[in-house]
Every structure is written in structure tokens, then in C-alpha cells.
Amino acid sequence: MEDKEYGRNILFYLNGKRVLVERPDLDMTLLQYIRSTGLTGTKLGCGEGGCGACTVMVSRFDVEQDKVVHASVNACLCPLYSIDGKHVITVEGLGNTTNPHPVQERIALLHGSQCGFCTPGFVMSLYTLLRNNPNPSEHEIEECFDGNLCRCTGYRPILDAAKTFSELAWKRGTSVIGEDGTAHVIRDENSDDSGCGLEDCCRLQKPNGIEKPKPTEFTLPEPAAPRTGTGDVCCGKTTSGSCCKSQNQAEVEKAQVIGQFKAYDPTQELIFPPFLIRYSKGNTSEDEPRLQTLKISSGDGTSWCRTLYRPLTLEGLLQTVEVHPDAKLVAGNSEVGVEVKFKRAKFPVQVYVNDISELRAVHSDANGVTFGANITLAQFGSALDALIVEHGEQRTQSLAALRENLRYFAGNQIRNVATIAGNIATASPISDLNPVFMASGATVTLVSHEHGQRQVPMCEFFLGYRRTAMQRGEVLLSVHVPFNAEGEVVRAFKQAKRKDDDIAIVTCGLRVRVDVATGVVRDAAFAYGGMAPTTVLAKAAMRSVDGQQWGERAVLDSMLAACQDELRLDYGVPGGMAEYRAALTTSFLFKFWAVSCKQLRISCAEARLAQELEEDSERQLSRGKQEYASVVDRAIVGKGIAHLSALKQVTGEARYVDDMPAVQGELYVGLVMSERAHARILGIDSQHALELPGVHRVLTAQDVPGHNVWNIFKDEEILPSTEVHHMGQPLALVVADTQRLAQEAARLVRVEYEDLPAVLTVRDAVEQQSWFPEVRQLKNGDIEAAFAQADCVLEGESYCAPQEHFYLEPFGSIVVPKGEGGEFDIYASTQNPTETQMVCAELLGVPANRIVCHVKRMGGGFGGKESRSALIAAYTALAAYHTNRSVRIMLDRDEDMQITGQRHPFYGRWKVGATRDGQLLGVRMRIYSNGGFSHDLSIGVLERAMSHLDNCYRIPATDFEGRVCRTNTQSNTAFRSFGGCQGMIMLENMLCELADRLELPVEVLRERNMYRAGDVTPFSQPLDDDWNVPRMWKQIKQKAHFDTRRSEVDAFNAASRYRKRGLALLPTKFGISFGVKHLNQGMALVHVYMDGSVLVAHGGTEMGQGLHTKMAMVAAETLELPLDAIFISETATNTAANTSPTAASASSDLNGYAVYNACRVLADRLRPYRESMHGESFAKIARTAYLDRCNLTAAGHYATPDIGFNWQTNEGLLYFYFTQGVAMAEVELDTLTGAHTTRRVDIIMDVGKSLNKAIDIGQIEGAFAQGQGWSTTEEFLYFPKNGRLFTQGPGNYKIPSAMDIPRDFRVELLEGAPNALKTIFSSKGIGEPPLFLGSSVFFALRDAVLAARKHSEHKSSLHFELPATPEILRLACEDELVELSRIPKEQKVGVMPFVVRI
Questions:
Q1: CA–CA separation, 155 vs 1301, rounded Å?
Q2: Which 8-state DSSP code applies to residue 1022?
Q3: Is 409 one of the annotated binding-site residues?
Q4: Which of 105, 1328, 1367, 1374 is catalytic?
């Protein structure tokens, strides 16, 4: 074609408005374009399509189907040019805070948004589902979120809100929305809530006399009386007037909210533009834009793509590829986009193929089905479903196997754009589909102008790592999958770190065909991914069964041995996990053997196991229940009010740092990051970077005008001057016009190094005595006498791994110079505005009063933005100082994870003495944390870990000692629980091993040694009447039926060979206060304006935990005003000076009392006016007071009384009080793969008199999920060879997804306990304490592994380290297949593992 025949522009609609982009930037993603227009609701969370924060809906008219198709899409990977002819809807296109869409309204008001950064993505995923199916099932609703991650909520409230749109909304004991839009209630037949035990208990009465399950009008009950210590109240609703349980206020409040929801009317949605239908069909008039083949060229020399072609026909594609045989073909961009962003790949010529309808056809004949290669994975799945129904189960087993693996292939957003051609042609060795294609006997058809069409069997298609049989100029036309014959069985298996939206560790397609009459094997294909540089056939195993009798044990043994020998891996194999991967190959084959024998009706021992082996451990539909009593003594405080910013967050109106509009002339900072783990800096050459147009400065340590050191111990440079101390450490700053240019120029800066020895792991650091000088000790009693007196003395060690914060909003900062007097405004995502202010002032050499740090909100923090955020702000401050222009930085996810610190890994050595009945006598513990390369907050983390080594148990003699190790990793930092969970987990691991030795249930050991009121902790703090763990322990055992379920679990395990269940009961106590005395203070500033509105400023920051909401509630309660009269704009150092960081779960205590004190002053000043103007509006009262020259501004301050601890003398009060809780978890483990599901979790938390019970429930659920991730799926790994971080994003670092939370998740707040707390309204801090309870899942898994080991008769003690990933779990089961996969110790000697835990 001649150039004049090509189009150069793209046309699409954005939220209903037509957009024409002339010669679009080929590097620009849809996300970048959307945000450039001011629509900032769509967020950048990871840049690799792994978190869903960037989800939008893209609609197109499908000409073949003659209908509009809606798809959720990751805008961060979607090239802008691919949107030609489509309609894009963002979260702003749905509604706003004044008129939210029902999806937005329900997620907001049912507490589904905390920090809010991920929320627009969830909104758009659910919205897209509803556009395609206005009446989805609950299963479809849960599945629609498989590409979205949330770090705050624990997912339960999001799922609850979404399920109000289901066919049977709120069918589990709550309420439903009827066709008339009113709220109804349906009772749950399976509920354990049996009331008080009386026959006429009001909890058992049918609502309004209507038989179940018919919905009845929901009548709100009267507020329930406060619960007594036993949880019973007189409800007055039984015929006999007997006593009955109080109403669950959580359900009452939920029903009140649901009853106010607007009805969802799918006919009122934004329509697909009619013009785009004509545009897609080619029916536009001459004076209108028309759909054309595109050819767009870029003039930017740094662009990764210089020329783009977009053909519309197969012939056009072949012509283009003939001219450009090395062009990169792109469909979904899910692979290429990641290569470009993270591997810095460049593809000068690119061909976009997703608009070629000829490549999406599906045809079936007598032999099988031919799929067009460019069919998307979502379309592929739908086609497979239809074909299985059409042709029957026997003939379509290969198709069913493909469908099975497709269920867990990435997330919806990726499946909606990625194609089977892309999956095949990239030749990934861990492809989900290629092993199944290969095993099924599939054939690919290739086509080119030069060679025409040719067919290649899949077994001959893959030639090596990322190499295929495709020749230059060829494209993949189609894939043919044959139907299955009688006597043929096909299955697919996959194992990943996380069940859904995760890349495979090992995947396989397995097929066997036997003679129906004789059972002799006629054909077999065992194809594996993850075991070689490409998809491979286990040919030796296939040969071993050829002609053999399928079902004979000798054949099975021979097949497994042949498979293991053939696919054995070296210890240092790329990808790691050599033994686990080898074990999976035979585990999958064993499963296949059993299920195929059953299907073929072959009688053998394994066939009888088929049902349990084929049952998927996938979590079924989730359900949740929250319980708390009503509040009768306060008007506002204690009520379950939704987060005050929730509606802004669900509509995309909430602004985060990077959402702020750019100031004119604003520049961007790019980071030059160290390529060494430890080295001297010999020179930095920035010449090539500075030669790029638009690059303004390259800044190094020599450009710092003030102090270049920071943190509490002043042992870390902001920009290193002589040495780098970890891989990824920023050592220079590039200041340029755009982010892309700054990052490109940063890669051109050359650094000369001299390598120095590096230490990565905490164990290596202990061995080399690489540690900081500080030592912390807690010694009580005579430890040697305790050991001498003990019947059992046991020694061992414990380890707990690091954890990435994975706040959805990466670090960001904007610094705006005022242009005079050395003044700067800093807009930062930080939990610590005061430290940010002070660090930047010292860096620039100006007084702190010239610097104002503003924090509107954060997209999550969890401690990660307490100290390290100051460093990022310092980079932008330095650049703004030198350029006198506004400067911005927003870290990419991989940069954030490499630069910032994580939760400290801990290693401990312990010795315990106990009596034979399990009474603890003494514990010696030596614990070591991996602090990274500088102190940061590591001493504080160590102190909290030391003070939580007792957890909830009385230990008469203690000898605790702790140190912080210095290593060449990022400086590890604060993380929710701040060392507390590490201390408790090491003790609990010790108790588990002691219980094993004593042959006692560990719950008996825990209960036997539990503190009682009056006992004294190792840090000399007595436990007073506020000690409620024994009460909650007893309550949860009764309410969650521990004894019954223990028996049921044991019975299940006795009957099941390869699926095991586990049960754990775990307590926690968490001390509330900062360990540094002076931080235990808060301040507030409150203004009453003449119109009666109130502005509150306080020292705490909002990161999703609802602090601003709670503070507004305190102010409203104290001033006796409605909540909507109170407003909190931001946290800033010019309105709240010298603030403590928002951390330690103390911010509500400190700032709440400060707000209260300020409001109390104002209330006292206004009292005379209120009394004299009784009945008048508060606006009139405020104006009258102002005219009377009454001061309507008050400052408040609060300092925690009596606090202060001396570590040298073990004297003083370390914590003001303890937040306590108990959790019970039940899990089910597939012992052949290590996959598990959490069946049920029950939690009771003592939060005192909660400031906001719904928000506290949300904090409990979110913290639990984070603790569950820390102890199971989240594995932080490094390359030992060079110290580079391996887990740099959601692609290989797996936080829990919506499919990982407990199937049955029950959370209750303790009511009726004595409370004499001198805290704000007698409440307790809640942000951190529940996190440790997430490890109850870890201990339940340990229980399941013990059950598995009993079958294998392993008598050795179980040493279990956290996190319990599928690899750890599978190998711990120690069965014959694991033994078969073991690598001899001598083969590991001198071999460096692929990755290591630090």
C-alpha cells in the first residue's frame, strides 16, 4: 500500500465524548492519555497489569456478532492506538458524589473502600460485569474481581457490596433488595446463631410471620441494649419475657444502608455511540472519519516503537509482515508491554493485529475444532464452554482441560485482550495452555506470502527457550484441537504461588488412550511446562506405559520413576524450587492416574482416591458475618458510619499526590540506581544523559546545599557520596521535562564501581557478626534453675521472612518552590509530615518554618511511608531547589520495591524448659533482625519484637536478647505490627515444637500457660482488669464449636489420604504506645466559622484507616453537631506542627484526645450562647459569638500519661494498654501440591468502646488478610549472586487476592467487658493488633501437615518456617513422591540457589 492509503489518526469515545487524536504517541498507554486529560480516577498501581487499579471498560462493536461487547481492560498496558473505534468508560463516566452510580454507592456505603486507591478498578470490573450481565450470579461476581488487588479491606466488604447485584442478593442471613427496590430479610437456614437456647427466643422467630425463604419487608428493630459480660440482654420480644441475645447492630446498620440504595436500572447506562457502529461497519459518509488501516510513525528517537501498522485484514497483515519480517506482532500487549517497561526492550516496527476479524473465527468438523489464533482468551473460554455442551463431555476432554487451566490464566482484564496466538508464539516455558495443546495433539497452522500455509504439530513447534518453528515472515493463523475418542482421558493441572491470576510454577496437560476392551495403553502424552526451557513431553514416562496395562501398580511405579528421572532439575536451576517442581510432576501424574482409572472404570487402589484427588481446593463462595452491639450512650461516636471519603474514592474524585494538576513548567525526577549490592563509587558520568534535549540537571551528593545525612541515627546519606550499600540504591537524580525522559536519561548515566563484600541474609549476618552495636535484653528469674527443674528441655530456631507493604499507591512527592525566602510546599504520600519537613529543611539548609508539608490522603501506608517517604520527598526538594521549578516524582512499582524497606526478617535461636504436662518454666531467646544497610527504625522494631516474645503466656524465667543485623539490602522499616508479629510468631513456633515433643495439642499448651489478671510481663508491666484474652478464648471455643470441629477435622483426616484439614486457635495481645516517649503526644487545631461549619486539623494522616472519619466523629460528638458540619481538609505542618507519625495504632488515641480537648474548649466558650439562644441554628449561634468577639479557634494537645520505659533497668510503663484478640482458623490442604484453602475464620477482638465499629471491623479484616499473606503467599526473594531483588511486582510477589480470603469469615467485637481505660471515649487502637491473627492460617496449615506426615510415618519434629508457600507445604508433607524428588545433599554443595530468602 502507498502511504496515502494509510490513516494517521485514531478516533474513539471517552465517557460519551468523541476524541480524535492526530498521530498518537506510539509509546503512550491508554492510562497515560486518560490521566493527561484530567481524569485521574484511573490509577497506576503496578504498570504490568497485575493489580487492576487501572481498570477501565472498553466497548467495541463486534461486526461478526452484530452486537456491542464490553470488556474490562488494564489501561496501563493498553496502547492508546489500540482504542481506535472503541468507547472507553472510566470511573468518572459512571457518576459523581452527588449522583453516584449504584455500583459506586454500594461499595462506598458498605465499607468497601478504605484507602481508595484500588477502588476505581474494582468499580469498573463490577460495572463491566453488569453491562454484560445485569443479573449475575454470586460466583460470577466473585470471579469478576480476579484481576483486582486490594491491600486494605480484606475484600469481604467489597464482595458483600457487589453481591447486592446478584440474582439472590444477601441470601445468607442478611437482606436482599427486592424488585420494588425495598430492603428485605431472609434468614439463613445454616446459621449457627441459635439464640439463647430458649424455644421462643426472638432470634429464632420468623420475621413478620412469613415462612422462609420468601422475602419479607425489613423492619428496623429498636436499638438493642448494651450486652452484659456474657453477651446476654433482655430483648422483651419473647412470649414468656425470657432473656435473649441482643440484636446484632452490624446487620441492623447494614440493612439501613441497603434500604436507602437506589435501584440498579441497566437501561439508564451510557449508550454505545451509534456513530461507532457505523464506523466499525465502514458505513460512514465521505465527510466523516472512516475506519482505516493505520501507519503511524514516531519522530522521538527514544521511542520503543518507531513505526506502527494496524492492518484490518489477513491479507493486509501478510503484506506488512512480508515487508517487515522482523516486526513485532502485538495483540493484547500483555507480554510486550511488560518487556518494554521492565526489560527496556525496543521494537522499531510493530504490527497491531487485534482488529483482524478473520483471525477470530472458530470452526468445528468431525475431527475437531479450529480456533482462529487471534481469538482472545475470554472469547476462547466462551467458545470452549459452548463446544463442550454441543459435542459432549467425552469428545471434548481436551477442550475441558484447556478450559480448566484458562480459569486461572491471569485476570479478567488480561484475558479480555490477550490471545491464544500470543500465548503460543511467545513460547513461554511456563505457559498455562501450551502443555495442554501439546498433550491434546494440537496442530498450528502458519501462513506467509512466501510459503503459503503449513501445519506444524505442537510437539514440534517449540525449539528452545523462546524459540519456535515459525520462520521469518510467518504468522500464526489457527490452532486445531482434535476431538477425543472412546477410552481417552485428558486432564490439565497447574500449580502457582496463588490460585488465581498467577503465573505457573509447573503446569501440565496429560492424556492417555486405552483399548476399551483390554485396558492396554494405545497412546499417551504427558506435556509439562516449568520443567525445561520450553514446553516438553515426558517421553520416557510415555514410553514406560505404551502397551502396558493401565491400572497396574507396577506400571504406575515405572511411570513415576521415569518421569522423575527425565524431568529432574539441578539445584540452582533458573526459577528455583527444583525439588518442589520435580515433586509436582509426579504428583500431577499420580492424580491423573487415579482420576483416569476411575473414569475408565479400572479397579485399583488409586481409583478409590479419585474423588478426593480431583476435588479442587478452590475456595467456594465466600460469606462473612460481623457482630457488634448497638451504641446507646452516644449520638455519633461508636456508630458504623462509612468512611467520609468513600464516595469521593469510588467516583474517582479523591485526589492523591500524583493526581494533582501539574504546575506550569513542572519537571520530573528520574533515579540513577545502584547496580551493585555494595561498592565504592569511583565516578559518575552524566554526559550522555545531559545531551538529551529536555534534560536539565543530573544531581549527586555534591549538589546538596545542606546536610546530606538523615534518619534518627544520622547514619544514612540521602545521596551516597562514596559507597552504595544495596542494589537499587538511588545515587543520582536526573531532572527532565517528562517522566519517560527522566527515566531514559537515568539509564544513560554511567557509574564506575569498585565491588566490596556484601551480606544479604540474616543468617549470614549472624554468622559473620555483621550487626549494629545496640543490644536489647529482658531478663527475669533464674533461667538456669528453670532448665534444671524442667522435665523437658528443647532447643531450636525460628525464622520469619520479610514482607512488602504493597500499598497500592507507590511513593510520590511534588515540591513547589514559592520563589522567595527559601519557601517550599511539599505534597507527599507520607505518614510523617513533620519528619518530611525536617529532613527537607536540613537537606536544603533552610529553617523548618520555610517548609510546609501537605498530606491529603495516601493510597495505603502500613508503616512503609512512616520514615522512608522522607527520602523520596528529599529528592524532589533538591531538584526544586536547583531548578526553582515545581518537581514531581512517582515511583514505578519495581522502583518502589527496590528502594524502600520492608518488614524485617527475623531469625531466632531458642531454648525452652517445661514440665511434662506443658507448664512453661523458662525460655531463652536470641533474636536477630535483618535491618538492612542503615538503622532507620530497626531498634524500635527490635524492642517491640522483644516485648512481644511472651505473647499471651506467663513464663516464670526469661532470658531475651536481641540485635539488629547490618546487611546490604534496603533499609528495612516500619510495617503494620512493627516487630510485634515477628516476636509472637517465633514464640508460637517454639510452642508448636514443644507441643510436638510433649505430645500435647498446642492449644492445650497455650491455654495452660495463658496470663491471668495480675500476672506481670517480662517488661515488668502488670496485667490489670483489662486482661480479656481468657474470656475471648473461652467465648470463641464455645461459639465457634472448637471441640466439635476438632473432632470433625480429625475424622476427615482419618478418612482422606491426600487432602488434610487443620485447625488452629491463636491469641494475641498488642501493646499500644510509641516506644519513644516523646512521640506519645498529639495536637489539633479547630476552627468554627460564622456559618456554623467546623474545620478540624490534627496531626494524624489519612491512609485508609478512617482516622479522619473518627476524628470528625469525635469533634461532632463533643461539639454536639451533626457529622456533616465537620470537615477535615488535610494534614499540614503549618496547621499541625511537630506531629508524631501516624503509626503504632496510637493515632486515634493521641489525635482524638487532642481534637476532643480543642472542641471541649470551644464547646465551653459557646455554651452561654447556646443556652441564651436555645432553639436557634448553630450557624446563628456561631455568628453571634463571632460578633461578640468570642475566639472561635482552639488548639488542643494531649500527652499519654505515665508512659516511659527504661530498657537498661526494665522499669517503667512500656505500653498504655493492650489491644487483644483471639482467632480460630480452619484450612484444607492438598498435600500433593501444597495448595490450600481457608475454610473458615472466627475472630473476636477487644477494641474497648470503639469510635466507629464498622471501621474497626474493616481494620480487623484487612489486617488479618495482610497477616495471612505474610504467613502464606508473600515470599520476598533476592538473587544471591548480585543482591538484586527478584520479587519486584505483582507478577512474582503475591499478596492475597479476593479468592484467598476465608470462605466463611466471622468477626465479632467483644462487648460487655470491664473498661476503665483513660483513652478517648474508652476506645482502643486497632490498626496493627489483628495482623498477627492472620498467622492462625499458618498454624492451621501446620496442623494439616502434621496429619499428612502421620500417613507417611514421619516421626521427626516438624520445623516450619514462614511463609508457608505451596512449596514449603508440599515438601513438608514428606511422602514417597517428595522423597523421589529430593536432590542428594552432595549435589547441592557449592551450588548457589537461584534465589534466597533474606
A1: 7
A2: B
A3: yes
A4: 1328
